[in-house]
Amino acid sequence: MGISLLMNRIWYEDYTSESVAKDLGLTVDEFFRKITGEDAFTFSDISTLKALLGLSNEEVDRIFFTESGPKVI
Q1: What residue ranges define each of the domains in the chain, with the CATH number in brackets?
Q2: Between vectors from CA 8 to CA 46 and to CA 13, what angle results, nearest 5°?
Q3: Per-residue confidence (pLDDT) for residue 67, from 0 to 100
Q4: What's the pTM?
Q5: In which band, very low, low, confident or very high, does the pLDDT at 73 lie, cut at 50, 70 and 90?
Q6: Nearest Cα residue to 5 out of 72, 68, 73, 71
Q7: Angle between helical axes of 17-24 and 28-35 (0-180°, round to 10)
Q8: Are 32 and 17 in contact (CB under 8 A)?
Q9: Is 63 exposed, middle or buried (0-12, 13-18, 19+ CB in 10 A)?
Q10: How far apart are CA 70 and CA 8, in angstroms?
Q11: For 1-73, where are the alpha helices, taking DSSP H only?
């Protein structure tokens, strides 16, 4: 659920994976490794995504801090 919420929000806000990766200072491959759970999102990544996508605290919790969410370090 967490990843699908994040991806839906990215598309809803008319961003692409490429543009979000760039805003996070990542390559597209690095961003997808975080999406797939191979790598973890940092709190800095989460803060950037929150501002970029206009996420509420509740949305951040549902995306990143649930069992189905991505890894966070």
Answers
A1: 2-64 (1.10.260)
A2: 75
A3: 73
A4: 0.88
A5: low
A6: 68
A7: 100
A8: yes
A9: buried
A10: 15
A11: 2-12, 17-24, 28-35, 43-53, 57-64
For the chain, give the longest Cα–Cα distance: 28
- By C-alpha distance, which of 14, 8, 21 is closest to 49? 21
Read off the DSSP letter of residue 17.
Answer: H
- How confident is the model at residue 69, as a pLDDT? 63
Q: Could you identify the residue written with the tokens 């990843």?
A: 3
Averaged confidence pLDDT in the chain: 91
Q: pLDDT tens across 37-68, in order?
A: 899 999 999 999 999 999 999 999 999 987 76
